[in-house]
Amino acid sequence: MINIIMAAIAPGIALLSFFYLKKKYDHGPIMMVIRVFLFGVLLVFPTMVLQYTLKEGLELTPIAQSFFIAAMLEEFLKWFVLFFIAIPNVEMEERYDGIIYSTAVSLGFATLENMMYLWFYGVQEALMRALLPVSSHALFGVIMGYYIGKAMFAEQRMKKKWLLYSLFIPIFLHGIYNYLLVIGSGRWLWLMIPFMLTLWWYGLNKVRKAAHDQHASSTYSPF
Hints:
With 223 residues, this protein is an all-alpha fold. It has one domain (2-219). It has seven helices and no strands. The chain has helices at 2-21, 30-57, 62-86, 96-121, 126-153, 156-183, 188-211. The radius of gyration is 17 Å and the shape is globular.
């Protein structure tokens, strides 16, 4: 039991710490980061209920399951928590703050999901789970947070554009990830490896860009 819990939470805590400490100066209120992480944990339960209901009530193709039942539902709920719970309760000082809070909610979700998976399928799956679903959730969160940060500091006419990016780019990438898993057979790993490498490159590129945009508080304006 202890082994499963530790194996399940370690990747999420490690990745959250990595992205949190990437911020060069003030890292933001740690208690708020923890709260957002816990909101991500709580999102797992309504998400599971909604996904189960939709799968039972609809006959869906693999693409529909990948992009709508999994990707759109999960990423929208994370985005909703950020937009209506996290951001209204903090004053963002830099664009990188969007990455911190978005990664927190994504990794909260991934951590409980990971724990449940390891409970049913065994701790021997921990490494693969850390490399694929937990890491991918973190990177979807990074990308979502990057564009939310851009929206928070953008001129009013540009806010809507960046907010749409913050929702639909993670949905698109998450949908591709899920579809590669659905394909199954022996070829999925050969497709997943280049996808994950590209996702890491794209996510870390957004981290570098956001980390260099410091002290933009003079242009900050909430939605």
